[in-house]
Automatic annotation (TrEMBL):
Name this polypeptide is given: Amidohydrolase family protein
Keyword Lyase in record: yes
Lineage of the species this protein comes from: Bacteria, Bacillati, Actinomycetota, Actinomycetes, Micrococcales
Coiled coil: none
UniProt xrefs under InterPro entries: ACMSD, Amidohydro-rel, Metal_Hydrolase
Record's keyword terms, sorted: Lyase
Limits of the Amidohydrolase-related domain: 11-336
Key word Lyase present: yes
Amino acid sequence: MSATEGHEVTDVHAHLLMPGLHAEVERRVPDEVQAAADLELRRNGLASLQASGRMIGERFPRLTSVEARLAAMDEQGVDRQWVSPSPNHFYPWANEGLATWATGEANRLVAEHVALAPDRLVGLGTVPLQHPHLVVDALDDAVLGRGLAGVEISSFAGDVELSDERLEPFWARAAELRAVVFLHPFGCSLDERLDRFYLSNTVGQPTENAVALSHLIFAGVLDRHPGLRLIAAHGGGYLPTAIGRSDRAWAVRPEARGCAHKPSSYLSKLWFDTVVHDERALRWLVEAAGADRVLLGSDFPFDMGLDDPVAFVRGAGLADAEVTGILGANAAELLRTRVHA
């Protein structure tokens, strides 16, 4: 076991690519897959898509092979990973039948992958967010059917925002199961405004995190479901550092009073990973949300992740107890009381 105070060093943000799943989706609905690819081209631009293709090709073993994953974890000093689907497997455009099959298949494949190293890997599944009436069954399939720790969701899907009242049963069930809900955007609704300089990721991802979390906060979702265990990727994006503006709106705008308390108070009711790429931002996140609400993340194995996530946390100038929590104790506590299959 690596450092720290008897807790396993745990990376909560790592991905699995499932090429067989995608090939079958493409076989079933080639026109829809092509339309999705066209949207990605419009959102990202050709240069970024070509660079991403090369990057994924180079890192393909770490995205698919348990052996390559474990070897990389050893190099990073990581004892345990929470493995979630690569976000391209959300398929937010899929119809009900395809979405039901694809999410079930993704949950099965994640479970099979982590079962090859159960002492080191924890799985997160997915749900068809664009079909709110299907998400509770998908969550049950992931947690109770497959033994996963929770599910990964995007920041929106089609016309479904996280504030959508149709998702209330999902939030209630996730809280009841004490399941992890990992918020990880895929795509940004700003579309071609971000189609160069890799703005689709550098600006798009933190924007989507901020928008999605704001929907949850201002709609009162966290008031109604205080037991919800939601982790925001990328440190919650822009929201933690700009939360004062949300507090001001809550204080002066009647339409922004859907939550019971000022928005900044809800940061300590959420969890955030450490993929912020700046030691100052990590310190601010700890100050804004509390050290017990921050979890080690790397975005493994993508190039926009942290190459040495443990060193990043250790180099941020935090107190020893805060480092201990972030590197593993906080993640262990989240899993300690979860409902098992």
